């Protein structure tokens, strides 16, 4: 099951282990009156033992060459952590910096580059968490399923630092993010972490369907809103309410009405963004069943080691060998 | 000295074997040069990629599905230590989904993401191949010197443009391939709704607002057809210094991706225990041979 050979063909060499059983490898000495001597049981058994030892040594060598190993294994453990779907805005406005200036293709201060950098740090600190990643602009992109492969999550979040394209369309993104949880058993707290710099109007029927999905999947929602310092605050009702000019305010209201834990963090500079991520981090530390991968274990060293033990016996007896009667 | 004379050759070969065996336990390795690959696969997910013109048993008929299945098979053939990243192309841009990951350690994940790639992920519907390819090259360059771009597309430009925009990069700075997808016979493009249900085919009349008058048919009603545009793709390959290959079977893709000129040599530590182990076994078996030394008095 979890046991395998790296080079199974080398097991054929094990057939060679028969040779030492038939050939003792001792020098034949002639003695004129051998027939006179009684059969000595002890000698017979020592001879058999030595043949067996040599056969065993050959067998162990063949096994060692075939490289047996225990496959990678998953062990279930309980710790603290969460299942987090990162739902990250990749619309073209994410290429700008916080003050709304477009910085050119290679800028390191764009909102997306900053968010990506801080998220990588976040992921590195959360060793036991599961992460999934959905990037969205006009449509959502399935980037990664829920996984504990943090190296992969890292490489995907790093790629988010690149240029984004298209408009912001939040609803399909939320639906895809929630899709990662539907039909799965609840084995830890579930979070959708939305990182975006804006919102868009949502159709009422879609809003209702999403509400149902949030409740069914018992998923908490955190929104890190990368706000333009000149833009409106989520908590302040706009002067002339209109869902197409200030969709963020309405989205915030809607999220509050979901009936699941929800918190928004407004960040209009790097420091605020850092603080927002730290807050999310402190919130989600509930018991979590997670699986840890034990790496593949090599067993050929064990074979070679055991063969070496046989060897000591073989050598000891070989050194006692009588070469000739007349020394 | 006396002891040397006293002990037999059998003893010394067993002794030598024991030394080899002890070395074995120390897990010796030798540094060796092995070819590995670092690829960024960028896949065209515009709607013409839904056209169905592949006919191979056990593989999807649509271009995008065939590309995915072919990449999936090629992943199996690439040596461990090779890295693969995935990206999407639509409109004017290539967007990287994840940076190249070592394939053996992350295989299930890469396969899952590949499986989920879908035309509905396109953030806009146009298809400016040349610009997409240029941004793909830029993304690949940003991912490190050994990264090769493999750009999968049918070359179907939409809306049609008379000429390619100028390439401002250096041809050949990023190596790699353009993989032409589809057949050379024009076929209609399926029109699918958001749930992926077929709604017939794209007709020229649906697209008349985007097409130049010359591309409009005289009689009015007919399908908007798509075929693999070999000519455009080979021209783009020349402009950018990439090689052009046509995706005919999954096997030919795997073979192309294993080409030595796309590989980077990397030093890997090769386990040599099996060599020592075999020598030990050989020495043991030699001691079991019976040959009486000639000229010696027993």
UniProtKB/TrEMBL annotation, chain A:
It comes from the Bacteria. Keywords: Membrane, Transmembrane, Transmembrane helix. The keyword Transmembrane applies. InterPro entries: VWF_A, vWFA_dom_sf. The chain crosses the membrane at residues 301-320. Coiled coil: none annotated. Residues 83-280 form the VWFA domain. It holds the Pfam family VWA_2. The keyword Iron does not apply. Gene3D superfamilies: von Willebrand factor, type A domain (3.40.50.410). This is VWA domain-containing protein.
From TrEMBL, chain B:
SMART domains: VWA. CDD domains: vWFA. InterPro entries: VWF_A, vWFA_dom_sf. Residues 36-212 form the VWFA domain. This is MxaL protein.
């Amino acid at each position: 099951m979890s046991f395998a050979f790296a080079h199974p063909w080398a097991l054929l060499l094990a057939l060679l282990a028969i040779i030492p059983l038939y050939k003792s490898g001792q020098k034949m000495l002639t003695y004129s009156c051998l027939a006179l001597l009684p059969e000595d049981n002890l000698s017979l058994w020592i001879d058999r033992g030595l043949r067996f030892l040599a056969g065993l040594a050959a067998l162990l060598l063949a096994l060692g060459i075939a490289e047996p190993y225990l496959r990678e294994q998953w062990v279930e453990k309980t710790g603290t952590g969460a299942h987090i779907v990162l739902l990250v805005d990749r619309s073209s406005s994410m290429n700008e910096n916080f003050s709304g200036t477009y910085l050119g293709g290679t800028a390191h201060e764009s909102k997306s580059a900053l968010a990506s950098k801080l998220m990588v740090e976040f992921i590195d600190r959360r060793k036991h968490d599961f992460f999934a990643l959905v990037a969205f602009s006009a449509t959502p992109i399935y980037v990664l399923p829920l996984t504990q492969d943090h190296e992969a999550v890292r490489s995907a979040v790093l790629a988010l630092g690149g240029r984004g394209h298209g408009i912001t369309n939040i609803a399909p993104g939320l639906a895809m993010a929630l899709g990662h949880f539907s039909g799965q058993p609840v084995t830890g707290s579930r979070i959708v972490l939305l990182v975006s710099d804006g919102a868009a109007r949502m159709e009422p029927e879609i809003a209702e369907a999403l509400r149902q999905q949030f409740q069914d999947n018992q998923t908490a929602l955190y929104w890190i809103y990368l706000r333009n310092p000149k833009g409106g605050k989520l908590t302040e009702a706009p002067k002339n309410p209109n869902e197409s000019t200030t969709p963020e305010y309405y989205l915030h209201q809607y999220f509050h009405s979901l009936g699941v834990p929800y918190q928004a963090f407004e960040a209009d500079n790097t420091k605020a963004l850092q603080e927002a991520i730290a807050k999310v981090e402190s919130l989600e530390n509930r018991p979590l069943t997670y699986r840890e991968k034990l790496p593949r274990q090599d067993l050929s060293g064990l074979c070679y080691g055991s063969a070496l033990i046989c060897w000591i016996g073989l050598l000891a007896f070989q050194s006692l060998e009588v070469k000739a009667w007349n020394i | 000295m006396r002891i040397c004379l006293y002990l037999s050759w059998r003893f010394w070969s067993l002794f030598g074997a024991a030394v080899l065996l002890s070395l074995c336990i120390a897990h010796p390795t030798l540094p060796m040069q092995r070819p590995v690959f670092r690829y960024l696969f960028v896949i065209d997910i515009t709607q013409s990629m839904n056209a169905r013109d592949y006919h191979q048993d056990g593989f999807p008929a649509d271009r995008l599905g065939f590309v995915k299945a072919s990449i999936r098979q090629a992943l199996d053939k690439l040596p461990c230590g090779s890295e693969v990243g995935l990206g999407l192309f639509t409109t004017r841009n290539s967007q990287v989904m994840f940076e190249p990951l070592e394939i053996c350690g992350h295989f299930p994940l890469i396969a899952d993401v590949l499986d989920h790639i879908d035309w509905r992920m396109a953030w806009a519907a146009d298809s400016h191949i040349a610009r997409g390819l240029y941004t793909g090259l830029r993304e690949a360059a940003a991912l490190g010197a050994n990264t090769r771009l493999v750009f999968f597309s049918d070359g179907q430009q939409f809306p049609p443009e008379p000429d390619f925009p100028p390439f401002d990069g250096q041809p050949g700075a990023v190596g790699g391939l353009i993989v032409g997808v589809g057949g050379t016979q024009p076929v209609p493009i399926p029109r699918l709704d958001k749930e992926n249900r077929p709604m017939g085919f794209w007709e020229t009349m649906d697209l008349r607002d985007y097409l130049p008058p010359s591309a409009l048919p005289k009689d009015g009603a007919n399908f908007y057809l798509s075929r693999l545009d070999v000519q455009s793709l080979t021209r783009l390959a020349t402009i950018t210094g990439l090689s052009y290959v046509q995706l005919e079977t999954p096997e030919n893709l795997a073979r192309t991706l294993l080409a030595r000129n796309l590989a980077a040599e990397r030093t890997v530590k090769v386990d040599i225990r099996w060599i020592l182990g075999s020598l030990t076994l050989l020495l043991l078996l030699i001691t079991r041979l019976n040959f009486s030394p000639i000229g010696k008095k027993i």
